[in-house]
Amino acid sequence: MAANRASKIGASLCRPAIAGAVLAFAAALAGCAGPAPHMPDMAAGTGSAGVVAKVAPLDCRKYHQRLAASTGRPLQSAASGSLKPVDHRSDIEDGEAKPLPHLPLFSTFDPNQTLPPGWQSWTVNRSKTPTQYALTEVEQRVVLHARADGSASGLYVPLTPREPGKLRWTWKTRDVIPEGDNASGPREDAPLRVFAAFDGDKSTLSLKDHLMDEMARLMTGRDMPYATLMYIWGAKRPEGSVIPNPHTERVRMIVVDSGTRHARQWRCHERDLRADYRAAFGKEPGRLLAIGIMTDTDNTKSQAEAWYGDIAVD
Known about the structure:
Layout: H1 2-12, H2 16-28, H3 60-71, E1 92-93, E2 96-97, E3 120-123, E4 132-138, E5 141-149, E6 152-162, E7 166-173, E8 193-198, H4 207-220, E9 227-234, E10 242-244, E11 251-258, E12 267-272, H5 273-281, E13 288-296, E14 303-313
Parallel strand pairs: 9-11
Antiparallel strand pairs: 1-2, 3-6, 4-5, 5-14, 6-13, 7-12, 7-14, 8-9, 8-13, 10-11
């Protein structure tokens, strides 16, 4: 019965690619339902970049200083010998990821651990090859290494719901994806993504979005977040471009790095989630529910190698 029902819902959606988007974000960013500020109906995406957001990358020395100040944790290096494995078995509750009050920092882990404890794996769907992630030591600091080969998957941390604050992260890529175009579904890939999931009033959503929610619930047992704000390293679009996801208007992307100019260099960013949400969606955000990352090359069938440093949210 459930399979038949899901099939009927799937037939109601305009394109099969929508189901892929549902699985990607529903499986990754399940959150708690609850009231949030109203958002108007989102117009159908045109597939082109729109509003420009101000982008001003941080000097990476200032980034590490601000990160230490915001987390209350001293800067560490893998060479210091002070890193110890962290036991996050308590982060799983009744088979589900337990929301955490903060993001576990990659630099606090032993590089011999395969994946960072507290970060949960997710896949786009069973037909996709997963991207390979592993902790590694780079320049005496533990970071997360991502390697994609026609693949797509990610990691995420469900957070205790809170008001959106500042999001800080550092990343580096070996590759850009020359064929990539995040406004085009068949070419919507990125070597680096950091995204934030938000709660909201789902009664304001369109019939299509309600059908997407029901399909996600049937196929994954989880709901899609009300809205997702994603920061990406693009191929051609100018830095600051705000791009509607070509599959669903509930996901908006902001290009914070673009092209090959800064490839193979560490780039450090600090973003005001509330201000960026306003720029992308035109209204106030609801509560922040989760933070995640993804490196994907499944649409362009290309390769990418990238690194994520510490990510923190106020």
